[in-house]
Amino acid sequence: MGKTYQKPEALSDAYTHYCPGCTHGIIHRLVAEVIDELGIRRKTVGIAPVGCAVLAYNYFTFDFQESAHGRAPAMATGIKRVRPDLMVFTYQGDGDLASIGISEIIHSANRGEKFTTIFVNNAIYGMTGGQMAPTTMPEQRTTTSPAGRDVSKQGMPIRMVEMLSTLATPAYLSRQTVIRPKYVMRAKKAIKKAFEYQVEDRCFSLVELISTCPTNWGMTPQESIDWTENTLLKYYKLGEYKSPESTEEA
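Above: the chain sequence. Below: its structure as tokens.
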């Protein structure tokens, strides 16, 4: 029997701190595989967020920086402009990116900053206690919306990929998920394409990944997968929303 599994060099041996059923570990693995396959590990810099992935730097074997809450795009902008030879990416949750950091990501995309963003959307604040996020679904219960999100008061969930796709600046924008094996390879292809555009010095890229949060949703891991597929994916449609090629054709 040949060897069927090999840990990416870009992935460390650290034990995970993530909850059972969380998909951060899968996403970390995909990012590490892509970085290895592109041969960019020694010149990659990641930016960790404030949120569940605040300790992301423990899981990779290349340089990482820690940013203030929501400010990862600003830090990535500074690093990439000073060292354009580096491959820079932010790794952000929905509370970090779509709430306190929403202006940072919008203006970075609009300026066409040539870094990559991995955006993990689990429709809730995870690390800080399960509060309602800008991405929380209508009637979804959280610690700050125990009766469910009231859209008449809090508005509808923000769809970041659709919002960013209205910008004229060339960008690669994709939404995928990793909740079942059939989705994982599609997610990896999107992540790889996003990094390839940076290697080619072409554009700002963002890949949104719909994730689970069994702990804060009050569900088992299996229930959270089913709820994601039956609820989140109906609102947050998967697909490629924008690419440099489609922008050039337009």
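The longest strand covers residues 87-93.
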